[in-house]
Amino acid sequence: MTAGSTLTHGTTAEHELAALQREHGRPLFALLLRLCDGDRQRAEDLVQETLVRAWQHPEALRADDFASVRPWLMTVGRRLAIDARRARQARPAEVGDAVLENARVISDHAERSAATLDVRRAVKTLTPEHREVLVLVYFQGASVAEAAAALGIPPGTVKSRAYYALRALRRVLPGYAADLR
Fold first, then answer.
1. Angle CA 144–122–164, to nearest 5
2. CA-to-CA distance for 141 and 125, rounded, in angstroms?
3. CA 107 and chain centroid, separation
4. Alpha carbons 23 and 61: distance in angstroms, whole number
5. DSSP label at 105?
């Protein structure tokens, strides 16, 4: 199709648009494919958008300044590709369903608060000796040697009390058993 051809609305316009696609579609697609880093779907969308722009602005295709409409189509397509790239960079990346299925589920604040209350109630059911060891070793982060020194008992006793305290908690908190291993 040359610049002298007219694009009018109606069936003539559809035929001329189809002729534009046949004559300039492949080179336009090749350019847009390179500009879209090999993303065929995006390049096809941009080819369609370029042809829609040609249909919306038939006066641009009728200009006598050039013998072919290809430079005009290539320029419009290139600008659309640049705009699309800028738009993608301005917003966060889209996440596919597969990524969401594999994402780690993070419990919300209410669930964490409820779990904290459950653990506090369960720790209160322990004997004072077991509770002391558990608080020092697991909640305050003391080593076995530090807990033994603070409580004035041998390290082996700290280890056995911690073991039996955790075992008692597993019985009281069956839903949390995996977290206590």
1. 40
2. 21
3. 19
4. 14
5. P
Q: Which value, in Å, is the radius of gyration of the alpha carbons in the chain?
A: 35
Note whether 158 and 147 are within 8 A (CB).
yes
Neighbours of 19 (CB within 10 A): 13
Q: Quickly count: other Cβ atoms within 10 Å of residue 5's Cβ.
A: 13
Per-residue pLDDT 10s for the chain (181 aa) are: 544 444 444 567 778 788 888 988 999 999 999 998 888 999 999 999 999 888 888 777 666 666 778 888 899 999 999 998 888 888 776 666 666 666 666 656 787 788 888 888 888 999 999 999 989 998 899 999 999 999 999 999 999 999 999 899 888 887 765 544 4
CB of 21 closer than 8 Å to CB of 44:
no
pTM confidence score: 0.45
For residues 175 and 57, what is the distance between their CA atoms, to the nearest angstrom? Answer: 66
